[in-house]
Amino acid sequence: MTSQPPRFSPETLMMSHGYDPFLSEGSAKPPIFMTSTFVFRSAEEGEQYFKWAYGLERRELDQTMGLIYSRLNNPGLQILEERLAVWDEAEMALSFASGMAAITTAIMAHTKPGDVVLYSMPVYGGTEFLLLKILPKFGIETRSFPADMPLDDVEAMARELGDSLALIYLESPANPTNRLIDIAGVSSIAKKLSTDDRRILTFVDNTFLGPVFQKPLALGADVVIYSATKYLGGHSDVIAGAATGSRDVMEPIGVYRTIMGSMPDPFTCWLLLRSLETLKIRMEAQMANAQRIAEFLQAHDLVEQVFYPTLLDPDSRQYAIYRAQCTGSGAIVSFEIKGRKAEAFRFLNAVKLCKLAVSLGGTESLVEHPASMTHSDILPDVQLRFGITENLVRLSVGVENVNDLITDLTAALEMSQCKDPVSAGTP
Ligand SMILES: Cc1ncc(COP(=O)(O)O)c(C=O)c1O
What we know:
By secondary structure, the chain is α/β, with parallel strands linked by helices. The chain has 2 domains: 10-35 and 70-276, Type I PLP-dependent aspartate aminotransferase-like (Major domain) (Aspartate Aminotransferase, domain 2), CATH 3.40.640; 279-424, Aspartate Aminotransferase, domain 1, CATH 3.90.1150.10. 38% of the residues lie in helices and 14% in strands. It contains 16 helices and 12 strands. Strands 1-7-6-5-4-2-3 form a 7-stranded mixed beta sheet, with helices on both faces. It has a 5-stranded mixed beta sheet with strand order 8-9-12-11-10. Helix 6 runs parallel beside helix 7. The radius of gyration is 22 Å and the shape is globular. 50% of the residues are buried. Pyridoxal-5'-phosphate is lined by residues 98-100, 124, 126-127, 171, 175, 205, 207, 227, 229, 239, 241.
């Protein structure tokens, strides 16, 4: 009887998976291959690699793809993608130059003029811009539905679109309000309405919870997308993206990435490989801090509302979705400061330890004002409809000492109500 090799956890595999030190002079860590092109052993070999790379011929799993050119492949890129696939238990992963590159490439690979993309709102401002302003220029129409729309209504909307519906795009939890969408429910609608000739795909932007706290593929989604700039990178020093899914859905996206040139460079891949080694411990530490901060904010007189999954009403549908599909609440805490935009701005100008900057998921805590920053390209009435109010602040909690963070937030909240600009710290 042959024994099966042990199946290790993703956090264990991040130090070794997909890398053979003896292919690189015994180097314990994968080196960076700063080369644009790779030498073929023969013309026949080069021809074969191109056939596979351009999708002209299907590569069987036991056939080894060779290195061609760093827009198509590179050792660092391949090791990174093997490790990304481990987290989502996916057949295939692809990495990109940014989260937006991942979103754009993946959507364009699976749509054509005349198709409709149905998407949940809110979504990250850049994604909304792509869906609302860029895709229609290429004949791809888009329709949105609120994240908390009942599933029956989502199904009715999808049915009404008939044959033109190609893709359902979800972001859950949504940026910046942490609204949750029933990924299993929406994916099953897409499957139910699919026919032999027309497969409706479900894409999920899983940036907020990362593969540590939510696994959309296991819930029925077809493609999972990440801004790897956030938790996967985790140190606010890299811009990158990723997508995972089954081979049949991911391979066309890979071909588009090659042609659009939306891949990450070798140094970016190396930075992400280093970051993936600590993904789980970072996200867990950040979540523990976020939970304490969310509770602190909820109890604070100068905070009107806190949006954080564990603080949802236990009897609500949103909480039921959280319990069913997430294994952790993440580290993004959005909250409304008592007052209006002026109070929110005074708070943002007063923080000292937390930095006033967009982005999220890094080891340092960042605060920002979604209505005038990350989501400012969304029309004001649409912002309001989806809960992006003028006193809403988004906090990405880092790994600092939580008591230090609470001291900083306490002082800044007091400043938020102080109308004297000098003592409020405004320039
Ligand atoms: C949820 C979400 N998706 C996608 C993106 C875009 O990612 P990137 O900035 O890496 O292009 C962002 C950026 O903030 C985001 O928050």
